[in-house]
């Protein structure tokens, strides 16, 4: 089914509309799953009733998480509303609401213990996650041209929602970043001798054939090997896969003897936000640095530090 003309059409529509590779994989997965669930019936011959049955199946039989169910619904809404132009209308289906979950955060000392157990490259990756509040995918996509050491800033390209933003960059990382840049530029020079270079945004290589030779386009954290470009098929060097970072973190957390906390890459982004609020930064600034569209998303961190609003103390503190 993955190579069927219909699925190829869906993939082309996703790329035409500028969806990320991650979203493309997710949508294609759920659309295939939906078709298989209904015994390979063509989606044109189905509608709201079949979508409702599928979502109910995911909830009652597969016991998927609420966010997983939302992902499936988004994929099918894209299929019917935008591609097939057969609007689903009112489904009469309401998924359960996600209760508020407080994220796990690490103290400054716990961050230090974990970083001390890492090699220089991995230490730099997680230092940027904590120091700049990045998602792991955003960090691994950093190119040399995105770094401005003099201004202490970092440009985040094509983030969630396909938006760019600028965040802070710690001056303490200057030496480590310079050393990493020297290492990756040597890799780029060797690749260029073979006529290859870093993977480039779609169609850029056709517009600027020599862009792969420019230092600015090199990833700060390149992969260890070459691979075909996912869109063009050209041989190139992509950025490091996030599974490498996750494995390194798991090992470092184990060695650091931190117990009772479920630590993942996103924990460093959560810790960045809470540390800024604890140091007195206003919530709007934190919202901008994290790239949250709605301040209510950022508001969760004020609950993490035990204060409904940053800077609000218990009234007991004033009398004791």
TrEMBL record:
Keywords: DNA integration, DNA recombination, DNA-binding. Residues 101-314 form the Tyr recombinase domain. One of its GO terms (biological process) is DNA integration. Residues 4-84 form the Core-binding (CB) domain. One of its GO terms (molecular function) is DNA binding. It comes from the Bacteria. Belongs to the 'phage' integrase family. PANTHER family: PHAGE INTEGRASE-RELATED, PROPHAGE INTEGRASE INTD-RELATED. This is Integron integrase. It comes from Marinomonas balearica.
């Amino acid at each position: 089914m993955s190579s069927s003309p219909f699925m190829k059409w869906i993939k082309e529509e996703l790329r035409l509309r500028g969806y990320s590779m991650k979203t493309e994989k997710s949508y294609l997965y759920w659309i295939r799953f939906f078709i298989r669930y209904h015994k390979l019936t063509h989606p044109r011959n189905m509608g709201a009733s079949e979508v409702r049955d599928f979502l109910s199946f995911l909830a009652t039989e597969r016991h998927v998480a609420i966010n997983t169910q939302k992902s499936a619904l988004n994929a099918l809404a894209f299929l019917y509303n935008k591609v097939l132009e057969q609007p689903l209308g009112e489904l009469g289906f309401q998924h359960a609401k996600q209760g508020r979950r407080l994220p796990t955060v690490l103290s400054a000392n716990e961050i230090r213990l974990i970083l001390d157990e890492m090699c220089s490259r991995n230490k730099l990756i997680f230092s940027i996650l904590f120091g700049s509040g990045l998602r792991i995918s955003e960090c691994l996509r950093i190119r040399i041209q995105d770094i401005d050491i003099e201004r202490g800033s970092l440009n985040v390209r094509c983030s969630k929602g396909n938006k760019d933003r600028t965040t802070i960059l710690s001056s303490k990382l200057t030496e480590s970043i310079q050393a990493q840049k020297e290492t990756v530029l040597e890799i780029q020079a060797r690749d260029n001798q073979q006529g290859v270079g870093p993977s480039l945004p779609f169609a850029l290589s056709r517009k600027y054939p020599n862009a792969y030779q420019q230092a600015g386009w090199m990833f700060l954290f390149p992969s260890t090997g070459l691979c075909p470009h996912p869109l063009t098929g050209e041989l190139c060097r992509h950025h490091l896969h996030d599974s490498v970072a996750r494995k390194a973190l798991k090992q470092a957390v184990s060695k650091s003897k931190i117990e009772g906390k479920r630590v993942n890459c996103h924990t460093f982004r959560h810790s960045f936000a809470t540390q800024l609020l604890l140091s007195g930064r206003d919530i709007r600034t934190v919202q901008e640095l994290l790239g949250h569209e709605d301040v209510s998303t950022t508001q969760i961190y004020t609950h993490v530090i035990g204060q409904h609003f940053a800077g609000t103390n218990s009234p007991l503190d004033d009398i004791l």
